[in-house]
Amino acid sequence: MVEVEEPQDYLDVFQSQRGGFSFENCKRNAYLAAQANIKPPTAMKSGTTICGIQLKDAVILAADTRATEGPMVADKNCEKLHYISKNVFCAGAGTAADLQHTCEMMESQMELLRMATGTEPRVCTVVRRLSSMLFKYQGYIGCALVLGGVDVTGPHLYQIYPHGSTDKLPFTTMGSGSLAAMAIMEAEYNENLSIEDGKKLVAKAIRAGIFNDLGSGGNVDVCVITKETGGAILRNYEKPNERKFKAQHAAFPKGTTPILKEEIMKLVSVEEDVVMRD
Amino acid sequence: MQAPVEQRWSPYADNGGTCMGVAGEDFVVVAADTRLSQGYSIHTRNCSKVTQLTDKCVIASCGMKSDAITLHKHLKARMVMYEHQHRRQPSVTAIAQMLSTTLYYKRFFPYYTFNVLCGVDDEGKGAVYNYDAIGNMERVPYTTSGSGSALVMSVLDAQIAKSNQTIATPSLDKAGIVELCKDVLSSVGERDIHTGDYAEIFLIDAAGISKTEFDLKLD
Prior knowledge:
The complex is a heterodimer.
Chain A: H1 10-16, H2 26-36, E1 45-46, E2 50-54, E3 58-63, E4 67-69, E5 72-75, E6 81-85, E7 88-95, H3 96-117, H4 123-136, E8 143-151, E9 154-160, E10 166-168, E11 171-174, H5 178-188, H6 195-212, E12 220-226, E13 230-238
Antiparallel strand pairs in A: 1-7, 2-3, 2-11, 3-12, 4-5, 6-7, 7-8, 8-9, 9-10, 12-13
Chain B: E1 18-23, E2 28-33, E3 36-38, E4 41-44, E5 50-54, E6 57-63, H1 65-86, H2 92-105, E7 113-120, E8 126-131, E9 137-140, E10 142-146, H3 149-159, H4 174-191, E11 198-205, E12 208-215
Antiparallel strand pairs in B: 1-2, 1-10, 2-11, 3-4, 5-6, 6-7, 7-8, 8-9, 11-12
């Protein structure tokens, strides 16, 4: 647990309000958890499989679509591929809220940069900004990213960890299903693959995660980024997990639910006044 | 001086999975998935949770697989011993009581199993017994245990017990209950990460025990 010092004077208070995360409730929460058995809410995490490959003139990203809260599936078809700019996309694993907000913020920063400079943003710019931000927050922003794009210098693929470290790689996997997906990547990756074969490879790697990792599941989303066409998300590129059995239930007759109390309020009242004018 | 080191011993594991039992007037339906998992990994996709004890009694166990195997092996041995002594198979009610004492015998180092015992009793009626890990037993019209039990129970409360419903609807027949069990396990497979792959359904009635299998999702 992070130790927070009690503010001694107004300067301490001012210092604590300068921005960043506030840890003032940490002590209280620890006390509540210990004494009253009140636990803080847990965030939705995507126990995920994401991956990406770099080819001669394209980058391909892919992700599964399962979001979990502990052992429960919170969303069977969520979107883990995020738009950063026309030529840069990223796949995210970790805390859902952090991923969504981080990517939205980066999207807005890159659009402002594009308008200010009149050029397409470079992939290395996005990576530098993301890693600086994540390092500043010391890993508390739970974003594990596979970032890919094509800029004036060609196709690039990066891996970014929640603490801010980055790697530039020809192929990569992240999330709880990364080991299953990496097995496929190591066996079959080759930089001379065509785009169509590349799509098949990333989908196969994600399928390995979907079937062999309980934190991953649902469908396969793919994103292809090329110099000519920019990036495009192929939502539900594969659907390997359609429901196999569905019984026909008789619908509950109308009025089945018991009524405990009935109260009808008149919310709109119409008043008419006749005013005589001369 | 060296700091004190805390030694921990954790002999238990949770292997997930879901099972359920529903009693009818003269039959009983038992259903369970066949996934064996731990944490985020699947150990095997095809591992039965259900063991047949007599011609009209089966037991389904969730929790820790190694304890379930040991318990089932022990119970099967007790079935043989009973048959040798009494020249007939034990009744479901007798097995139910024996299982309760077997579990409580290990009160302070329990079998980490959550059992559902099902069969047709001496009066020909469907019987479902529910247990906790240390031998608390109750005969119930329907029950469920395992990682998806909270999801199963809500559907059984509505469809079997018809809780909180003012309009009487016809209760399900034998085929209807089997269909319901298939549907419920399919639904649990959608939302519980430890439940999936395949499922078995045992139907026990006057004709004996019949087993059917069907597919769940593999993700």
